[in-house]
Amino acid sequence: MKLDVDALRYLSKDDFRVLTAVEMGMRNHEIVPAELVERIAGLRHGGTYKVLRNLLKHKLVHHDSSKYDGFRLTYLGYDFLAIKTLVNRGVFAAVGRQIGVGKESDIFEVATEDGTVLAIKLHRLGRVSFRAVKSKRDYLVHRSNYNWLYLSRLAALKEYAFMKALGEHGFPVPAAVDCNRHSVVMSLVKGYPLECNHCAVFKIKQLQNPDEVFETIIGLVVRLAEHGLIHCDFNEFNLMIDDDEKVTMIDFPQMVSVSHRNAKMYFDRDVECIFKFFSKRFNISYQEDRDEEDEKSAGFLDKELAASGFTKRDQDEIEKFIEGGPEPKDGSSSDDESSGKEQTADEDNETVTTKMVALQLADQQVKSSCRNDEERVEENLDSCNVKVVRENEPTASGEQEDSNDLDNSDDDDDGSGDAELVKHLNKQRKRAVAAARGRRALASRNSYKDKGGKSSHNSKIQKQVSKW
Ligand code: ADP
Ligand code: MG
């Protein structure tokens, strides 16, 4: 989806006020009645309608008069709200070119005041029809059009929380900088995905040390499991590699705990994806070494995540809609705002800092006035009996109304009675480690004669582990 931020510079305070009013109204309405927008925005002299026309012109809202005269935010409108908040917070000051198109996201470069280039991921749930979503249509039977904005926001919150926690535990992931609404700001990875459907020009065909990269990657999936987590979309599309063949793992909205009911299947699939890719692309075969090893457990990182703002309840909610799945080979679009408009990543992979559009927001100079404005809008909301929750306040209960409609009976995820599962997972971990070790033995064959007795093997593995 094209993100033309030019318009952002010309939007007035009132424009944002009305846009925010539509967003707030959407907490209770799929289509927000025009009068409600007017009441929430509280502009004098009926100015709201004029502003709505302007927002419509810029495709920031969508007009729907099928049942009544109403409006909803478009993804572009949501983008603008998130970007404005982040700019006001001083997280970045300019938006640049698009650098990635995921199955349900768009990734852009952004630059801070001092010129540091970061990446912003804008989640777009609903762009691709998930199999999982389809299979749960009946679940949404009383909601003809589920609020994708809300789900995108949950996905961003989850991604941010996981990225932060993983980074703090030494995993090679982008540094989590901030998040707002459906967006996550993170450090820019100076590399490329091992595989990319949208990078027509670029494809990694050769690696200097495919064995080492393979081992590092398998080591990652194992170490994740040791921390109680399964990536669920661990494949060549979500592993980036730089010129020094350093691996960075991305894309976390579908991660689950090892206590998840489908943990075994997800773990197997993650490992299998890597084996398949490396055997196909780099002609690497492997043998399984069935030596039994004592497995270490590095604690349960998933249990720590609640502290970072992403609650178990959020996890349950999002899992109803997102099931981990391989990236589709051709991300077909189902969202009316983005269909047919997906951008391929810029073909120029060299320059990073060009073409930044500085965001001098019309009302940016008085930062505090933004907050005051939001507060005033919220006051109006109160008087309209609309429950308000600020973005990124995990303890707020704004979504509860939404989710009250939903069947919250998923109770098989509480980690109880999973001794069998944990045992099985341990086996899977062993299998992956063993496979990596077996691979190591093969890879080493030509370079030295050491067939690797258990102890020498162990020390090599040990070294590798410390590298991870
Ligand atoms: P999705 O969840 O939609 O699959 P991803 O997080 O996998 O989205 O990102 C899609 C693409 O965007 C990646 O394949 C990669 O090319 C690019 N990308 C994502 N995050 C970064 C980053 N931090 N730095 C550079 N490129 C990134
Ligand atoms: Mg991805």
UniProtKB/TrEMBL annotation:
Its cofactor is Mg(2+). Gene3D superfamilies: Phosphorylase Kinase, domain 1, Transferase(Phosphotransferase) domain 1, Winged helix-like DNA-binding domain superfamily/Winged helix DNA-binding domain. It comes from the Eukaryota. Residues 322-344 have a biased composition (Basic and acidic residues). SUPFAM superfamilies: Protein kinase-like (PK-like) (SSF56112), Winged helix' DNA-binding domain (SSF46785). Residues 64-302 form the RIO kinase domain. The keyword Zinc does not apply. Residues 455-468 have a biased composition (Polar residues). One of its GO terms (molecular function) is ATP binding. Residues 424-442 have a biased composition (Basic residues). It holds the Pfam family Rio2_N. Residues 322-351, 364-468 are annotated as: Disordered. GO terms for cellular component: cytosol; nucleus; preribosome, small subunit precursor. Its EC number is 2.7.11.1. PANTHER family: SER/THR-PROTEIN KINASE RIO2 (PTHR45852), SERINE_THREONINE-PROTEIN KINASE RIO2 (PTHR45852:SF1). This is Serine/threonine-protein kinase RIO2.
